Amino acid sequence: MSTEMQSESFENSHVLDPAATADSQETINKEINDIHAAYRKSVEDGGAEETQPRIDFAPYRSSLLRHPTKDLHHTDPETIELWSPAFGHRDVHALEADLTIQHNGEPLGERIVVQGKVLDGDGRPVRNQLVEIWQANAAGRYVHKRDQHPAPIDPNFTGVGRCITGDDGSYRFTTIKPAPYPWKNHHNAWRPAHIHFSLFGTDFTQRMITQMYFPGDPLFSLDPIYQSITDQKARDRLVATYDHSITSHEWNTGYNWDIVLTGSNRTWMEDEDAE
Amino acid sequence: MTEATTKLVATPGQTIGPFYGYALPFEKGHELVHRAHPGSIRLHGVVSDGHGEPIPDSMLEIWQADEHGKISRKDGSLVRDDHTFTGWGRVAVDNVGHYTFTTVNPGPTEEGKAPFILLTVFARGLLNRLFTRIYLPEDTEALANDPLLSSLPEDRRRTLIATREENGDLRFDIRLQGNNETVFLSYPGA
């Protein structure tokens, strides 16, 4: 490593987290397994099932100093919290949903279509809302100056897409299947392949960012970010389903993934729902 | 009207991670109004961690009413024509954890209500987004009657009230952990 890179690593926590250590995968696995075993015991004893990640999850070392230690304060949503910003086709061009046509040539890798619906907690489609995605390329490299993984950048792939949901809450992206990539949480740490999703609902309290994973990834059990969700059923909700009806002849393979936002707290007017 | 009876379990959130830079920030994302807009203010502050160190890779979003307390239903946030007030902004903090929005003071959405700006925090290391409110400091009577603020002890309550600086700017620091940890919110159905 050059002196220049060392000094950058030292000064920028993007590159090397001060909390990162040389812990082994076995150490991380044991911490994850202990937390999960305690959770399963608590559910067996009548405790509530968890549906969201823990924000205090020590196996993910960067979370140590970045989570509130006090309980979230429960409040009833008021005024602005019952509405969300509006987005539309003024904001997003239809072609932005195809990540394979943003440059002069075809990106390398397995061409996939990922589609599904965005629903609220009552099963209502979230219509005309913004969905944003970003991801690594087929070699596991992000277009980002802080990503120093020595895998090739693909000049034909930026890995960024946007779309506006349809009247039935549907979204559809054409992209390239991302590869796993190494990170610095512990020694020999690798993230399972994933696509980041950013979502808006009808209420701003439904705002969320998450990651979609691919079925059967061998890295699932080793990944402290995925395993920060202690409940298996909840973890499964982040895994897309291979769907041969989305696969198209001699062109792409296909995955389906539906996203459910938290409940809307607004009093729904008839015209909003039936429009 | 469609019958919405199915209760579905929400999809889990995950961290924004470090590599959102090409995807989420956009040109003038932090300018809800142009700097020349009458009554424009700077809303700024620092995001810090449990050691009080600035977090250099978090991303913030705000959502607010306009100066008259009206909630915008207009699209076009991502194209920022400098004329349309959409009420929503997004900014990535700088290398020293500092953020700046250019916006207006929100008016009360109902008479006597304490005006606030809704804030959402995302960061690498933060496994799910956090919500909080930025209250304007001026209307002390409305603040005293606010249901959320009055449910908090004084040392927690003050983490939600912005400071007005001499030039009219609003200062609001966000502490994810530790002394003076910001109050973060949860809502029904979450």
Explain what you see:
The complex is a heterodimer of chains A (275) and B (190). Chain A has four helices and twelve strands. By secondary structure, chain A is an alpha+beta fold. Chain A has a single domain, classed as Protocatechuate 3,4-Dioxygenase, subunit A (Sandwich). In chain A, strands 2, 5, 10, 11 and 12 form a five-stranded mixed sheet that branches. Chain A has a four-stranded antiparallel sheet with strand order 4-3-8-9, with no helix packed on it. In chain A, strand 8 and strand 9 form a beta hairpin. Chain A is globular and about 50 Å long. Chain A starts with a helix and ends with a helix. The N terminus of chain A is likely disordered. Chain B is mainly β and 190 residues long. In chain B, 46% of the residues are buried. Chain B has three helices and ten strands. In chain B, the strands form two sheets. In chain B, strands 1, 4, 7, 8 and 9 form a five-stranded mixed sheet that branches. A four-stranded antiparallel sheet of chain B has the order 3-2-5-6, with no helix packed on it. Chain B has a single domain, classed as Protocatechuate 3,4-Dioxygenase, subunit A, CATH 2.60.130.10. The interface between A and B is large, with 87 and 83 residues. Chain A: It comes from Arthrobacter mangrovi.
